[in-house]
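User: Hey, my collaborator sent me this sequence without any context and asked if I could get a structure. I don't really work with proteins. Can you help?
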Amino acid sequence: MFNKLIRKNEKKINIHLDERKENAQKEQLPSHIAIIMDGNGRWAKKRSLPRIAGHHEGMKTVKKITLFANEVGIDTLTLYAFSTENWKRPKMEVEFLMRLPEEFLGTYLPELIEQNVQVRMMGNHDMLPEHTKRAIYKAMDETAQNDGLILNFAMNYGSRDEIVQAVKRIAKQIEQKEILEDEITEELLTNNLMTKDLSEPDLLIRTSGEVRLSNFMLWQLAYTEFWFTDTLWPDFDEACLLEAIESYQKRNRRYGGLKGEEVN
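Assistant: No problem. I've predicted the 3D structure and written it out in structure-token form, which is a compact way to encode the shape of the chain:
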């Protein structure tokens, strides 16, 4: 009896979710969504589990949200998977996090390929273990021709370092007389960032109740809409993503102007 009730409730939830998805697709969707995935450790702690159990559960959420974002019609999904500051965490936790891309891609890569998802990565590759790089490079190579959702992992990524490296490249171009100082523009700096081939995020989501950027895409988020939720990342589901998209669609993006308003 209880199983029948659960199945009925799940069916109602799915129908409601489909209706919301269809309504969202009728409006302007965010082309690029960036997510700071936070709360894996707290999710595990609430259940008296080790932190790595939260990270493993969060990995399942990555798959679920990636496939749903692709289904909705999002062009790019950037996920903050590991920051340059995360190396300060306990050694065992870091080692587990460095194994997650291998497990995630080893398990779900065939489905990502089937769903036409293209895998990319931004960040400093040099410090990553060889097994982590092999898994990511394999996925990038095998999905390079896909033209669906771009799943962009930020691994060993820090925005301040990204900007510093971009400035160094521009300084070298000036030194080698490839460009003049007067030719330095916002566009030039943008084209020297790791995201040069991507549009800037339209919507940033951060889970777990934290309200800060944590050195994530500081340049690229200049005109991005922010959406924060208390939901921990392992509990973040399709309904949560739709809620963020619906909130985005209600906003008036003016980019410093007065869209829809008269200037006296």
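In plain terms: Residues 1-10 have pLDDT under 50 and may be disordered. You can pass these tokens on to your collaborator as they are.
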